[in-house]
Structures are given as C-alpha cells and as structure tokens.
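Reopening: structure tokens for the fe (ii) ion complex, inputs below.
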Amino acid sequence: MSNLIPNKIEFHLGLKKPIRILQLTDAHVALADERNENMIEYSQRARRVFFEEAKCPERDPIGYLEEAMEYSKEFDCTVMTGDMADFNTEKVYDTLKAILAGKDYLFCAGNHEFTPKPGIDSYELKANTAEFVQSHFRGNLFFESRIVGGVNVVAADNGYYVWTQEQFDRLKAEAAKGLPILLFTHVPVHPHLKEADWFRQHARIPGATEELFELSAKVTRYLSEEPLFKGFCSGHWHNNAFIDFDGKPSYVLGGLFKGIVGEITVD
Ligand SMILES: [Fe+2]
Ligand SMILES: [Fe+2]
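Re-run output (same inputs, fresh job):
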C-alpha cells in the first residue's frame, strides 16, 4: 500500500462483526490511440491537467488503479463510484477492462463514463453508449446491490445528478429487504438535491425534463426520510468532504488520480 493515500471513514450500524469496504472513485483514465485519433492530443493534455491537479504524484491513474485493485483483496467488498474513465475511447475501456478482469467489485457510473469528450453530455449519448461501456465491466453500472455481512451495499448511477423511476422502484425494493443500507453514488447525496429548483439550475443536460427534476428531488427526500438508508458514499468533487444529510453521514471521496482510496469500516 505504498503509494495510495487512505481516507478512513467509519459507519456504526451495530454489526456483530465489522466489515471493510474499499471505495475507489474518479481515476479519470485518459488514453486514446489510432481507433479514436481525434482524441490523442486531448488525452495527452488531460493527463497533464490531472497530473498537475494531483500535485505531481508518484503514479499515474492506471498505476494507482492497479495498486488499489491489489489492495482490494484485503477488503470484504470494493465499490467504484464513477468517472473511472475520463472519456469513452476504446483505449480507455480496453485498459480498464484489462485491469479489472477477474476482479470482484460493484461499479456505479459517473458523468464521464459516457462522454466522447468531457463537456459533451446528453441523455441520448448516454443511452447510445451504455451498452458499449457496460460490456467492459462486470455487474450493472446503473444499479446493483449486494449484502455484505448484514449490510445492504447499494451502488446506483446518479452521474447526471438525477434519479429515474426505475431506480426509485429499485431503491424502495432494497429498503423492503429490511437491512441497513449504505448507498454509493457518483454525485454526492446532499440536502440541496431535495429541491427540484437545484436540478433546474445545475442539471440542464440536453434531454433532461421537468418530470425528471421533480422525481429526483422526491427520491432525495425519500433517501432522507427512509430510516434504512444509513449513510452515503460518493465522489465527483475530487476532494474528501463530509456532508450532513439531514443528520445522516454523506462522505465524498477524493480522486484516485491523486492516489486517494476510501477505507470504510462498518461495525
Ligand atoms: Fe470526476
Ligand atoms: Fe464527476
């Protein structure tokens, strides 16, 4: 564990035997080859920007990811919370697939997983790219859950900030299982997401609808009110942070491109 920078957090849920979860987020792997020639120069620039933002760390994002996946063997469960890719070239996804092959993890998508170039996002692009992106990973990038030592670990995509009706139904189905839930998402779960107005101002991705904003605020209020949702873990901000979500802990983990990994103990 030489180059990784652990961010240790704890949830106290009254378990008989503690469990440990490794969280990884925001690796922003930025690679391109002749298959996406128009992205080669951009990818070099992006790598420089992330390298400088990370204050010239010891490793590149791929080195950190390889090291983190080796380290993940010491944990009961590994969850990736999106933006593992900076954009969706073949080279990025071939590389991630090779590193993650045969590994066990949950992975919820971020906002970067579906974009051909950062800054270009739309629901149509996401729908058209979803199958290609998913084909490189195990599990389900949009919603997955697993019971680990009596805790229901749920990983769900809110990379465009919003929640869909299908996800809402699945969140309620998870609560019906009756176990304490830790919810992993890309975008931090925050009290401001209880208001549809916030989405109107900040989530105007082409294809978004007023219905989606209203629904997303409603789902956030449900996450606040349903007692079985005990805590939240996310990424997207690239720095470690803590949010008081109506009295529930919501932790934001810094980017793996800086070497940061989340060591979560639940007892
Ligand atoms: Fe990110
Ligand atoms: Fe993000």
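Residues 73 and 151 are 19 Å apart (CA to CA). The first helix runs from residue 40 to 53. Marking as resolved unless the reporter disagrees.
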